[in-house]
Amino acid sequence: MDVRQKLAELLRNCSKNSSLHVGMQVHGAVLRMGYAFDLMISNDLIDMYGKCSRMELARSVFDKMPERNVVSWTAFMCGYLQQANAQQSLLLLSRMVFSNVRPNEYTFSTNLKACGILGFLVNGQQIHGLCGKSGFEKYPVVGNSIIDMYSRCGKVCEAEKKFHEMPEKSLITWNVMIAGYAMVGFGDKSLFLFKQMQEQGEMPDEFTFASTLKACSGFRAVREGSQIHGFLITRGFLISSQKVIAGALIDLYVKSGNLFEAHKVFSQVEQKSVISWTTLIVGYAQEGKLTEAMDLFKQLRESSITLDGFVLSSMMGIFADFALVELGKQLHCCAVKIPAGLDISVLNSITDMYLKCGLIEEAETHFDGMPQKNVISWTVMITGYGKYGLGREAVELFKKMHVDSIEPDEVSYLALLTACSHSGLVQESEEYFSNLCNSNRLKPSVEHYACMVDILGRAGRLREAKVVIENMPVKPNVGIWQTLLGACRVHKNVEIGREVGEILLKLDGNNPVNYVMVSNIFADARLWEECEGLRGLVKSKGLRKEAGQSWVEIDKKMHFFYNRDETHLLTKAIHEFLYKMDKKMKDELGYTREVSFSLHDVDDETRDESLRFHSEKLAIGLALLSGGDEIEGKPIRIFKNLRVCGDCHEYIKGLSKILKKTLLVRDANRFHKFENGKCSCRDYW
């Protein structure tokens, strides 16, 4: 073997093992020995630097080459694709064609993958057409990439067609199609193909199992997933050393709520991936097991694994959902110290965290200081303004987004219309909704129409809102009818409420929320017979409404309460405090509990007690007992999983007046800022 071949061999080994340090030493030897402009050596250098994530060095070699062949261009494209820069790969393909270098099967395969990753269907179809004309479509590597591209672009029928056209199907072909089905939510088809490939004598590998388990996870096929798990064990697969399979199993068990099995698999894995850590942490948090989630996150930070953007944004999402302000601030401090903290997904999640924790000024400061913003950045902020009832600010931000040449998407319009709705901006809502309907690029969905129904409902234009639902071009869903029904209760319109209620109960007869909403309209009108008839139906069907839960953070610890909860160590003191506040409010404001917000099949005294100890009141009681009333100028923050009830809303308004305190309550709909006896929602939520 001559020197040139030896150098090439060394570079290929460095590429295979991602040995950057050794590769750079070999590069030095290449320069000293006069092979700097050798085509083969240069191609190997580009490949090595690409595999070692040093694209700036790969570009330096590429730019200095006196001549380039198809291998040079393709190796450079592969490097960008590996670094998640699919768009740069497509730009290189365009440059390559203009340089009169003909693509080969690997060039086409690489760029079909790039189109799939970006969701660029039109570009993918164009490349597919070029493959057909040049004869490369028949190559297996190209055929597999075509299947992958169409699957990623949501065109599963085209992917299926190509799959069935393939004269010979390799294991990769089967894997790509199984993964494609799983990707678009056709888990049952993935499982069918998994069985079919084995019947045809093809043995699954780790990628087959991982994709099939992902399919099981997608449609909650726990039994089938457990069977595959058992099969892997009996066949001697060492899950402890199979990161991809282990990750898929953890995801399956987390999504099915089986955290015990998920943690069991996780504990067996020798080299845990950052995705597995995050999946398990998020799983515990979603089940309300915050202590376990935080313990795992602490272990992750103490491990040798580098926190990436996915982990940071996922954890920030947990802190945002549970309003863990102090932990969110700590993670923000951690994020600014590492490169991944500059990922735009992380920056967006930080803005979202501050907004959901009730720190709107901090959110604005962070948003204004972001080095770059995408459409999600603007949408998060507009959504936040909407939750706070700051509709005018949301409209101004939407205009500013246009000035900054950021095109709004459907979600941006939804955020804006929701903000306008929460602030009663009827004219602005109609204007922007009209813009959306006339757009050549976007189409309004049922959620956009629901915003218009909500704003018309707030304005008391109930019949007009019902006409909007009946005439809209998209099929009405349960949510839009619930929106109109809520407006009927606010305006005490029993006639339309009964009409909407009948529609709603036919559409979604097993949802207890619908029965409660209709029943409340009848109760407000004192139509007790109809009210009790609906409550009887709920009991006979065995339906149970989701329990109301509120929480408050005190000294970096979360305290959770349910209605009439007596499990807290300070329950007696909280109850005594609430009795004391009741008396003070009665004496100073003439406050009495509105029992229409409670059950109608119990006596008034029981109803009064039921309302006294709603979860949000218990959380507020604890906050005030713990010194919340001693922090001047700092609002007390309470969070609830459901919509705050009418009595509690009146109660907190009164409390803010007699205590001269600001109370910030985040419920399922929005933020309520209570100050001096008034609420920012203007009593419509």
TrEMBL record:
Matches recorded under NCBIfam families: PPR
Q: Where do the DYW domain residues begin and end?
A: 590-685
The protein's name in its UniProt record: DYW domain-containing protein
Which terms in the Gene Ontology molecular function aspect does this entry carry?
Answer: mRNA binding; zinc ion binding
Q: Which controlled-vocabulary keywords does the entry list?
A: Repeat
Tell me where the PPR repeats sit in this chain. 38-72, 170-204, 273-307, 374-408
Span of the signal peptide: none
Q: Which GO terms fall under biological process for this protein?
A: RNA modification
Q: Which family does it belong to?
A: Belongs to the PPR family. PCMP-H subfamily.
Question: Which Pfam families does this entry report, sorted A to Z?
Answer: DYW_deaminase, E_motif, PPR, PPR_2
